[in-house]
Amino acid sequence: MPGEKELNAMLFDQLTIIERIERRAEKGDLEEVKKEIEILKNEINRKLYQKPPLTDN
């Protein structure tokens, strides 16, 4: 189970993601929103499947 510091870092990352999408949505450009979501999904996947893994479980 991650500690408080790790949980806070994850929450800040999630807030950043929401803010990035929100900025695109405010401009009303749905294609830009879709592109931003795709970029973020790719970034998350890189973190999930990085070598070496974050933990040695």
Looking at how many chains there are and whether they match, the oligomeric state comes to single chain
The shape, in one word, is flat
Instruction: Report the C-alpha radius of gyration, rounded.
Output: 14 Å
Strand content: under 5%
**Helix content percent band:** over 70%
Mean pLDDT: 83
Please count the helical segments: 2
| Count of extended strands | 0
Q: Any low-confidence stretches, pLDDT <50, length ≥5? A: none
What is the chain-wise order of helices and strands?
HH
Task: Classify the secondary structure makeup into a structural class.
Answer: mainly alpha
| Main beta-sheet annotation | none
CA distance, first residue to last residue? 11 Å
How would you describe the overall organization of this protein?
This protein has 57 residues and is mainly α. Helices cover 74% and strands 0% of the residues. It contains 2 helices and no strands. The termini are close together.
Kindly summarize this structure in a few lines.
With 57 residues, the chain is mostly helical. It is 74% helix and 0% strand. The N and C termini lie close together (11 Å).
